Amino acid sequence: MTDAVTASRPGQMPQRSPLKSVLLHAALIAASFAMLYPILWMLSGSLRPQDELFGSTSLIPSSLDLGGYIRGWTGLQVSFGRFFWNSFVISVLATVGNVMGCSLAAFAFARLRFGGRNFWFALMLGTLMLPYHVVLIPQYILFLELGWVNTPLPLIVPKYLATDAFFIFLMVQFFRGIPRELDEAAVMDGCSPFRIYWKIMLPLSLPVLATAAIFSFIWTWDDFFGPLIYLNDINTYTVQLGLRSFVDSTGSSDWTALFAMSNLSLVPVFLFFLFFQRLLIEGIATTGMKR
Amino acid sequence: MTLYAGSIAEERRAASLPKRTGLKRIFDRNIHAYLFLLPWLIGFFGLTLGPALVSLYLSFTNYDLLQSPDWVGAANYVRIATSDPKFAAAMQVTFTYVLLSVPLKLAFALLVALAFNRGIKGLTLYRAIFYLPSLLGSSVAIAVLWRQLFASDGLINMLLWRAFGYEGPSWISNPDYSIYTLVILSVWQFGSPMIIFLAGLRQIPQDMYEAAEIDGAGKLRQFLRITLPLLTPVIFFNAVIQTIDAFKAFTPAFIISEGTGGPINSTLFYTLYLYQEAFGFFRMGYASALAWILVIIISLFTAFSFLSAKYWVHYDD
């Protein structure tokens, strides 16, 4: 517990009286429960018999019933297995693209000296502020012309072109912190810039690459707007689109199944949360990411 | 001739080589960097700058994807400004959402961060629990859950009935309340600004509090005179980021209203209206004008924030 984010302040601990401490913990436990209650309720709701969901505020189902998961999985004309596969493929390929494309650009900005560097860097920062909606329609027209609508390509290819400038910025910050002596020594040994990038920078930057990869995966997995626009054929749907169709088709008739599929759609994000929580929290704390 | 800042090896090697002519030298010096930048440059011109200019052009046309764009001058902007009731509704909904959700979210984030700041057992666990909604909150699944929480027979009404015997309305389908369910959804996700506040609080030097203590300043005074001023840069940062994000909110309103922005446009977020115009009615020119107005609104807001920062954000040391 030595990093800046988690380090507590031992010097301040004794200042609080035992009574105050108990009250604070009671308040925090109550607040934690209130925060998680809706999610837990959705989880328990998905495990109930279909007719029991309403009228019950409790978190314990009267009997365990996996029917919701079975009905939900095949609730649309295409099974959710397909949607999960589509989401998985898009998220993995987009993540690889983001890490590759952004780290190449970040290396140039952080380490290489070239004419126009400040100019391009300022433009790159400028694109951070530009709302996506301004480029949305022309991009749609472009991908329509290319015949890419109803394929995952519009959701994947732009990532290889480093369009998520935020990650470039994140990596530039990290690369600048790596001692220059390392690449200077490599230059003396006759290393090409590409070898320096590949053999020195990337291996030393695993924390930031992992942070970028995890956020990239989660954001792509959760993305609804992009798939909504580019994927109209149900065979190409991602999980988020599948869920949306499921809402429209079941309406409010089978909440158990809807909750079941909703829970499943959260599983990958939740796994990242469980295993990489510290990386996520440090990523937010040091860069001020919005999620 | 240096490719790397301060690279002695390169300079030595350069000195021993015959001098090259101007153009060739510039090329050699820059070629590597531009190779690294190439993917980004293609993306920048092909997917950002180019499309931005095209959408600026389209905003002065009528365009339905089938026939070629029809130049109409500023007509789209004039109609938006003077005779588009849905635009007015979308602005009202969006501003209500931004002005309510951002301050509330930041207030919760700051309050909880302050509770954590003074060192507490189980911090890591609490922090994880409070952060979880931020991570999950923008997914369709949570929007689906929200629809159910605030439905007429949803969890919230069940709880209200149990606790107070109050029979609540359908919050989602009542235009007086629907926007507030979305505000609550946003405030529930206060975890990530909370983490940023925590990181900011840790930057405040301890000896300031110790000095204040010696001078006899009470806890409230310490908060108002030390914590709050020194935290203003973080508050400012969080406010700007969260506001821009709130202007761009889309998914929850789409799911909760099944894409309509209803009832009676009460959840018609700006981006939802833009989506309807572009991909519901294929009025691409009009939607482009809407997109540029969003840019103007966000830019004005950002510029205003930075100007106001002079008066309330504490920057020295």
Automatic annotation (TrEMBL), chain A:
It is a multi-pass membrane protein. InterPro entries: MetI-like, MetI-like_sf. It is found in: Cell membrane. GO terms for biological process: transmembrane transport. PROSITE patterns: ABC_TM1. Coiled coil: none annotated. Gene3D superfamilies: MetI-like. GO terms for cellular component: plasma membrane. It comes from the Bacteria. Belongs to the binding-protein-dependent transport system permease family. This is Carbohydrate ABC transporter membrane protein 2 (CUT1 family).
TrEMBL record, chain B:
It holds the Pfam family BPD_transp_1. Its main location: membrane. It is a multi-pass membrane protein. GO terms for biological process: transmembrane transport. The keyword 4Fe-4S does not apply. The chain crosses the membrane at residues 33-60, 95-116, 128-149, 177-201, 222-241, 253-275, 287-307. Residues 91-305 form the ABC transmembrane type-1 domain. InterPro entries: ABC_transporter_permease, MetI-like, MetI-like_sf. Keywords: Cell membrane, Membrane, Transmembrane, Transmembrane helix, Transport. It is found in: Cell membrane. GO terms for cellular component: plasma membrane. It comes from the Bacteria. PANTHER family: ABC TRANSPORTER PERMEASE PROTEIN, ABC TRANSPORTER PERMEASE PROTEIN YESP-RELATED. Belongs to the binding-protein-dependent transport system permease family. This is Carbohydrate ABC transporter membrane protein 1 (CUT1 family).
